[in-house]
Amino acid sequence: AKQSGRNQTHFFTAAMQEHANQRMTLEQDLRHALDREQLEVFYQPVVHGRSGRITGVEALLRWHHPERGMIPPDAFIPLAEETGLIGAIGEWVLETACAQLRHWSDKGMNLYLSVNISERQRELGLEAQVVRDILERNRINPSQLVLEITEGLLLQDSEETIGWLNGFKQVGVNLAIDDFGTGYSSLSYLRRFPVDTLKIDREFVRDLNTDRYGDSLVSAIISMAASLELRLIAEGVETEAQRSTLAQQGCQFMQGYLFSRPLPAEELSAWLESYQP
Ligand code: C2E
Ligand code: CA
Ligand code: CA
Ligand code: CA
């Protein structure tokens, strides 16, 4: 038993070492991802649920790794946050997506743009002035931009966070709470933050029409948003049944594979041109 115990320790150490090595390699690769032009912004449309009209797009980052292929953001954003690389990467996403929005506006498409930002970007130089400069450079009206922050950020509740967010509001940018419903924030709590939009996390949408609790959770979120006069977007809408239940319950805006997956800019352009609500 002693022997196998030791082997086990050995095994774990080796596995942990392997894990640490992989992480270090990934970190090295991520350091070069920007200048080697391996990052790309995809776009997913946001739709008015009843009419099917496209109202905006969300920018979603992708990493084309030369050996590993496409790496999804969940697999490298946390690393980018830990290493601080999210500072440069996040600004690049904002600049790239704003340039793309300019392009769509020039073609006569009236869309808003939503960009995810990490709390870490606060210490990494994402000030209101930086956002204002990017908007001006691309001739974008601030009201066309939405910055999405996760609900978790609010739970850390600090004066710094509120001040940071107020800075964006002063520029005229809109703010959305992402993954809403996963962080247990209360109604009174939400009111303290200068947000305009809630995005219902897709785990709630998934549970729609499966049991009555799923439906009542969503209707609770919808009435909460209504009482705070917040715009509401449901994420992860995959089926027609989900779409119609959400529309019936009063959720106006939706996003999900039912309408379109996130697509490269060119593909979304083609999709937008042929789209019939
Ligand atoms: P998120 O902001 O909650 O984005 C929504 C995620 O749901 C996206 O995953 C999207 O592809 C996926 N999705 C959309 N519709 C459906 C659907 O109908 N069904 C299912 N199953 N999934 C759907 P993605 O693109 O892998 O992004 C994952 C997360 O990575 C994002 O979650 C966001 O938190 C983060 N992320 C992506 N881009 C950026 C970025 O530029 N900066 C930061 N800080 N985070 C980002
Ligand atoms: Ca988001
Ligand atoms: Ca989300
Ligand atoms: Ca998410």
Automatic annotation (TrEMBL):
Organism: Marinobacterium iners DSM 11526
Part of the full-length chain shown: 589 to 865 of 881
Residue ranges of every copy of the EAL domain listed in the record: 23-276
Protein name: cyclic-guanylate-specific phosphodiesterase
Highest rank taxon of the organism: Bacteria
